């Protein structure tokens, strides 16, 4: 029997709610819905109408993608929260929120409830998001509102705007309008995209607009100056570990218990923020007696540093440091 919802973490509550989603749906049918969705996402976006058209689409999206987008947003928010300690959003608007992954991630990052509004143009996604959120005390009063992102978009003033895995589905003018609307409405804006060269390029475009609007970058960058990566040579991205459900194993084959979701992000704010001194931007390489860390630093520059046994405590800390962490570790 499941423990009562109150004793579960938001991540566990979400997992339990998603597990029930495909109950009653024959496994083959669930796998087919996911395969159709993957094929649609491989096609041309943006589309003139919502990709998530009906209950089967959104159930497939939620079961297959939401655990990964939730973990990616949660990682971005945790990095943001470390740069702005002591602050928690008093309210939150999630634009293109779909089934609500970012709303769940916000509740996993900051304790307590807050007014939450999820905006999306796909009614079936909002309906399922509302259904899933009923299982979570912090989200059961969230507002799920139909809204189309266009160049005319305006947002009511709020503490936090999240935009996760949405920019990819918009035209360039709509992307710009959305970022400007978020900058005009919020004290903090967190944008997450797939960790691909294109996803990174959209994040950089948004980052530039946020900085022009007077925001400071809280994470992942240690500074608000231009990104030191020469366009087209590399892309800044991170990785979040996601437990695989039985649906994942069915669609992707194999028996791995987890997979790694690659994502790019920017978290910017008008609040006083203390970004990391440097950030680990690749998977650390652990060698005998040494750890190689690729760092983005405040100069701004990208630099590899080698931490050896001779560095004592710092070496032990380097061995525990992950891709995406701040360096050196706090304390
Ligand atoms: C890949 S899903 C991401 C959903 C959610 N943010 C997440 O991270 O799981 C993209 C979402 O953006 C929404 N979307 C795309 N274009 C939109 C538009 N022009 N107006 C409103 N919503 C849009 C879709 O309906 C969908 O829910």
From TrEMBL:
* GO BP field: translation
Q: InterPro entries, from UniProt?
A: Mt_RNA_Methyltransferase, Ribosomal_Rsm22-like, SAM-dependent_MTases_sf
**Does the keyword field hold Iron?**
yes
Q: Which parts of the chain span the membrane according to its record?
A: none
What GO terms are given for molecular function?
A: iron-sulfur cluster binding; metal ion binding; methyltransferase activity; structural constituent of ribosome
SUPFAM superfamilies in alphabetical order: S-adenosyl-L-methionine-dependent methyltransferases
Listed A to Z, the keywords are: Iron, Iron-sulfur, Metal-binding, Transit peptide
A GO CC term assigned to this protein in UniProt: small ribosomal subunit
Record's protein name: rRNA methyltransferase
Organism from which the protein derives: Streptomyces viridosporus (strain ATCC 14672 / DSM 40746 / JCM 4963 / KCTC 9882 / NRRL B-12104 / FH 1290) (Streptomyces ghanaensis)
């Amino acid at each position: 029997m499941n423990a009562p919802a109150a004793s579960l973490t938001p991540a566990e509550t979400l997992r339990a709610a998603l597990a029930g989603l495909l109950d009653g749906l024959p496994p083959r049918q669930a796998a087919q819905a996911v395969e159709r969705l993957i094929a649609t996402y491989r096609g041309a976006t943006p589309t003139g109408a919502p990709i998530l058209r009906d209950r089967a689409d959104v159930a497939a999206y939620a079961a297959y993608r939401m655990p990964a987008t939730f973990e990616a947003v949660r990682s971005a928010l945790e990095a943001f929260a470390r740069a702005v300690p002591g602050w928690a959003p008093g309210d939150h608007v999630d634009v293109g929120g779909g089934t609500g992954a970012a709303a769940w991630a916000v509740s996993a990052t900051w304790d307590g409830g807050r007014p939450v509004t999820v905006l999306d143009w796909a009614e079936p996604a909002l309906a399922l998001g509302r259904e899933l959120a009923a299982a979570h005390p912090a989200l059961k009063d969230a507002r799920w509102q139909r809204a189309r992102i266009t160049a005319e978009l305006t947002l009511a003033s709020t503490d936090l705007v999240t935009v996760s895995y949405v920019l990819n589905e918009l035209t360039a003018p709509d992307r710009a309008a959305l970022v400007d609307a978020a900058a005009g409405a919020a004290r903090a804006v967190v944008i997450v995209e797939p960790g691909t060269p294109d996803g990174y390029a959209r994040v950089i475009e948004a980052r530039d607009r946020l900085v022009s609007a007077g925001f400071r970058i809280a994470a992942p960058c240690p500074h608000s100056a231009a990104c030191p990566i020469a366009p087209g040579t590399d892309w800044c991205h991170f990785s979040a570990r996601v437990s695989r459900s039985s649906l994942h194993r069915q669609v992707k084959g194999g028996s791995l218990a987890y997979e790694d979701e690659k994502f790019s992000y920017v978290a910017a704010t008008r609040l006083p923020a203390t970004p990391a001194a440097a950030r680990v931007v690749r998977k650390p390489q652990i060698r005998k007696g040494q750890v190689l860390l690729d760092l983005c630093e405040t100069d701004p520059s990208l630099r590899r540093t080698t931490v050896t046994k001779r560095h004592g405590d710092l070496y032990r800390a380097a061995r525990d440091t992950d891709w995406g962490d701040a360096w050196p570790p706090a304390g």
